[in-house]
Amino acid sequence: MPNTAQKQEKGAQGSRMIMIWDRPTRLFHWALVLLVTTSFVTAKIGGNAMRYHMWSGFSILALLIFRLVWGIIGSRYARFSSFVRGPTAVWRYTRSLMRPDHPGHLGHNPLGGWSIIAMLLALLLQAVTGLFANDEIFTQGPLYPWVSNPTSRLLTHIHHLNQWVILTLIGLHVLAVFFYLLVKRDNLITPMITGAKPWHAGLEAPADAPRTTVAVIVTILSAAAVYLLVR
Fold first, then answer.
1. Beta bridge partners of 164
2. Distance from C-alpha of 64 to C-alpha of 28, rounded to nearest angstrom
3. Has residue 97 got a pLDDT over 90?
4. CATH class of this structure's domain 21-230
């Protein structure tokens, strides 16, 4: 019988590090974490902090535009086509979640893929409604003059309610990360920092060439679009 050291050596030899998350995707993820935190904190503080709340919201909108574009033209595992699956695939994946032969995924799994879509849509709704919001004191979204006061009040109400949707999605996301880490022994945190994940050497996963220049151009255009919208 092989001892523990031999098993570990075999496991190390049977896998290799695969780059799955490109730098733009990782920077997007952590910038979004920082900006969403900033938005929630400044909203609770209120007063003069609302200026930073609005700037944070504009930045989040620019990031979301970038991610939507990057989900089409980005590297392999960043593209929506690599992780958005139909209901049958999601159900099959969920049903096998606790089985020993549960299939692993280099990028987002079918269930996690839809959680990413839900998060992006909820944040997009929050950013867009914030453009028309009005606290009826001294803070107004830059596009408030474009709509009637009743419409602005409705969008402000949606903006306030949607924050709880976002908090729920964030909570589920964090719980899922720790579930995979502690139960499935699948570390999802480190790859989002380093970009690499250990994978079976026998399974090919060709990595795309770096597309930093393209990412920079998309970022600049996204920021410019938001600037022109809110100036």
1. none
2. 9
3. no
4. mainly alpha
Question: For residue 140, how many other CB atoms are within 10 A of its CB?
Answer: 18
pTM of the model: 0.88
Report phi then psi at 21, rounded to 5.
Answer: -105, 115
Residue 185 pLDDT greater than 90, yes or no: no
Measured in degrees and rounded to the nearest 5, phi and psi for residue 85 equal: -120, 165
| Strand 15-19 relative to strand 196-200, pairing | antiparallel
Among the ranges given (80-84, 117-121, 128-132, 166-170), the one the predictor scored with the smallest mean pLDDT: 80-84
Q: In sequence order, which residues have a C-beta less than 8 Å from that of residue 54 and are 6 or more positions away?
A: 130, 139, 141, 142
181 sits in which H/E element: helix 149-182
Find how far residue 219's CA is from the centre of its chain. 16
Question: What is the 8-class DSSP label of residue 134?
Answer: B
Domain spans in the chain, listed from the N-terminal domain onward: 21-230
95, 9 Cβ separation under 8 angstroms: no
Compute the radius of gyration of the chain from its Cα atoms: 21
According to DSSP, residue 79 is labeled: S
> What is the enclosing helix (H) or strand (E) of 57?
helix 49-73
What value does the mean pLDDT take over residues 11-18?
64
